[in-house]
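Researcher: I'm preparing a figure for a lab meeting and need a structural model of a single chain. I don't have an experimental structure, so a prediction will have to do for now. The sequence is pasted below. Please return the structure as tokens so I can convert it later.
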Amino acid sequence: MPINWRKQSPTLPPAIRLIRFWPPAPRPNLVEAVGSRREGQSGDYVARTTPRSRGGGGQGAMGKGGRIDNHLSGLSVTARWCDTANEGTADCALFCRCDDGSDYAVKDTSKHPCHPHSEYLCTKLGEMVGLASPPVRIVDVNGVLAFGSRWETGHEPDGWWLKAKSGEIDFASLAPTLSRILAFDLFVHNDDRHLKNYIVRAQRTGVALLAFDYSRAWLWHGFPPPSLPFPLCATVQAHRFLKQEFGDFLSADDVAHVLRNLRDVSAVRIESLILEQPREWLTNEQRDGILNWWQSGDRLSRIDQIEGGIASGAFL
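Model: Understood. Here is the structure written out token by token.
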């Protein structure tokens, strides 16, 4: 159902607001719920949405006196207007300008029911263990709660490795982060880390390397994650290409850093990441399965396998 648009009032300041997750309610598919800017329109346009009531369904996310419960502290932004994703991305549904003034690449459940959860959890977990990523938000698009990754500019996804080969980019400065990302991708079973799934952009000195896009990771393959090593896939092919071009660049210290941190992340912290998310992103069975696996020896065995497989080269 296409959304209706209205001119955004200049008296309405952009705001990031906390969203109300409980009780869960059936939601339409994002692609069906949102349209794009109409040709020839100017200015900012916002979907007509019904304000969320604080009544009904008990206290929900709001405690007594309007207090927000700690486990419902996931920040959301609201889409003002959206365009259909049309830049060759396989899993992104929309590009949205949101009320914090930023653009987001938005993913919903239309291409896989677990895309929003996998993207959110992997990005946040990656940050916990030492990876940098674009900021992520829960994006409210006409009442549909989707995953959003803030749009990054100033990078060239089609050729950063060519600049590294020519010396315009110092590849040695990227090697530690590439090593961390590889270890993490093995853990969450991300088999789609092709060369365009890195963001390499200028920063104050040198360049920054950011990890993004976990659509084909975590729950994409079912759960628990499949056994290792990976079959021949984009992640392995990209690593082999970089090794061929730049030599054996992996940093054992950075691999160890990520794996050590993954060992230390408790099930309580994973549960907190799940509770930040809209409840409809996971079934109770999926949530319990993730938490049970996290507390099991299987998680630690997987980390040990990654450590040995990278050191021996068997996983590469």
